[in-house]
Write a structure and sequence with these properties.
This protein is an all-alpha fold. It is built from four helices and no strands. The chain has a domain of 84 residues.
Length: 138
């Protein structure tokens, strides 16, 4: 039993010596391989970061376009309603106004809080301007 253990110990010592005596170029080759893998992963991460920033910018741009489209839709709906009031209601205009209002109502939930707040401010400013014009006219 002791002889078996001594023999196993000598085998393990031989394996350790082989690892120690391993040529340095193999160690360097492994280091270079690991460095290359690390560089590839860093490059992939940088590419991913750039794509994420690009998508974020595009998302913000699309949100601004959506806000301006919704605002324009609301403005057109108001103009149509005013025209409708002046003409004392043509049924075709009422249908167009309803459709325009439906589109606007569908777009509004898509806006984020800041954008909808900005659109509300713009609408209030426009309404205020129109009221001032009416007061000046009267």
């Amino acid at each position: 039993e002791v002889q078996k253990l001594n023999q196993q110990l000598e085998e393990k010592n031989g394996e350790i010596q082989q690892m120690i005596n391993q040529p340095p170029y193999e160690k360097e080759r492994e280091i270079l391989r690991l460095q290359k893998t690390l560089a590839e992963k860093e490059k992939a991460q940088a590419t991913s970061d750039v794509l994420c920033r690009s998508l974020t910018d595009e998302t913000h741009q699309l949100q601004r376009k959506l806000a301006s489209t919704a605002e324009m839709c609301q403005h057109l709906a108001k103009c149509l309603e005013e025209k409708q009031r002046k003409e004392k209601g043509n049924s075709d205009d009422q249908i167009a106004t309803e459709r325009s209002n439906q589109v606007c109502l569908q777009l509004l939930p898509l806006l984020d809080n800041e954008t909808s707040l900005q659109a509300l401010i713009c609408n209030l400013q426009e309404e205020n301007r129109m009221l001032k014009q009416k007061v000046a006219h009267v």
